[in-house]
Amino acid sequence: MSNDVIRDIGEQGVLKRLQRFCPSDIVGDDAAIMPNPEPGQLLVVTTDVLVDGIHFSDRTTSAEDVGWRAVAANLSDLAAMGSSPLGITVGLSLPGDVAVSWVERLYQGMSECLQPYNTPIVGGDVCQSPVITVSITAFGQVLPQRVMRRSNAKVGDAIVVTGVHGGSRVGLELLLNPEFGKDLNEKERSRLIQAHQRPKPRLDILPQLWESLASQSPIPLTAMDSSDGLADAIAQICRASGVGAVVKRDAIPIPSVLPQLTSPEQVWDWVLYGGEDFELVLCLSEPLAQVFVEKFAAGSAIIGYITSGRSVCLRDSTGKYADELLTLSRGFQHF
Q1: Which among 91, 98, 128, 149 is least buried, having the fewest CB atoms inside 10 angstroms?
Q2: DSSP type of residue 292
Q3: What letter does residue 290 receive in the DSSP assignment?
C-alpha cells in the first residue's frame, strides 16, 4: 500500500482516486446530472457533517467506519422522512498530511453502507483544512402521502421504537475503556461495538410500514430518527406537534446485558440520552401500531402514548423509579 499523503498527490490526484467510487457517467463535470424522482414523488434533501474529534476519533473509529457512519446518518434522516435514497454528494476537508490510503478507506466504508440500497456517490468537493470534516448531502424520493413529519403526532397515538436503545453508547464505552464489560463474551462484545461503529439506517422498516398501511386511507405519519438520543426524539416530536407524552420505562427495548454492566442510573442515561442508535421513533394509531409491531417489525415495541399536555413523562410500572421528565437539555447539543 502506498505511503503517500494528500499533499503528495494534490487535489487532482485526490479527485482521480475518489472518482473510482462514483458512477463514471455521472461525475466528472462541474455538477452531477441526475434523473428526476419518479412521477408523483417528492425530492427529499438532507445534509450531515462529521468532524474529527467531535464525531469520531482514531481511538474508536477506523476510516472505513467513519465513512459508514457518515452515510448512515444521512440515510437515517431520509428514512425518518419516509423516503428512499437516490444518491449522495460528499464534501471532504483534509489536512495535507492525511494518508491517501485513509481517504480511500473512508470511501470504501461509504460504498459498503450504500451498496444494499443501490445508492451512488454522485459528486462532491475536496478542500484543505486543519481538521478532517466529512459533509454529506443525501437525496431521496417519497410519495406525498407517505411523507413522515415530526409535527403530525396526535393525542392517543402510540409511540413505537423500531429497535434497541443504548447499544451504541455501550459499544463506545467498550472501545474507550478496556476494563469495561470484561466479562462479556466475544460475540456480545462484537455486536455492541458494531452497533456503534456500523449502525444500520432503518430504511428496511419502510416497506413494512407501507404494508401495514395498505388497507388504510392516507393519514399523516409521524417519525424522527433517534441518532441524538431517544429522549431527544420524543421531546422533539412533542414540541413540533404541540403535545405531550407518557413513556413506559419498562417497555423500552435495551441490550439484555446492559443492566449487568453498570449502575441503574447509568443504564437509563445511556438508553435515553446516549444517542447514535439510528432507530426510528414513530407515532401511530394504536391499532396500526399493534399490527406493525406484531406482524412486521421484529424488535420494535410500543413504549408509550401521546397526551394532551406538553410534558414528556417517563413512568415505571414496577415502582422502582419515580416519574421523570424527559428534556432536550440532557441530550447531545453542539453549543
Answers
A1: 128
A2: I
A3: H
The DSSP element (H or E) to which 111 belongs, if any, is helix 100-114
Dihedral sign (CA 227, 231, 232, 236): positive
Which amino acid, residue 46? T
- 22 neighbors 121 (Cβ within 8 angstroms): yes
201 within 8 A of 85, measured Cβ to Cβ: no
CA distance 93 to 106: 13
The number of beta carbons lying within 10 Å of the beta carbon of residue 21 is: 18
Query: CA-to-CA distance for 19 and 29, rounded, in angstroms?
Result: 11
Contacting residues for 265 by C-beta, under 8 A, at least 6 apart: none
- Are residues 151 and 257 in contact, defined by beta-carbon separation less than 8 angstroms? no
Q: pLDDT tens-digit profile of 248-261?
A: 999 999 999 999 99
Angle, vertex CA 198, rays to CA 265 and CA 49, nearest 5? 90
Distance CA 244, CA 242 (A): 7
Distance CA 286, CA 5 (A): 56
User: What digits encode the pLDDT tens for the residues 14-40?
Assistant: 778 877 777 776 665 667 777 777 889
Q: Which of 165, 164, 196, 169 is nearest to 180 (CA)?
A: 169
User: Would the pTM count as exceeding 0.85?
Assistant: yes
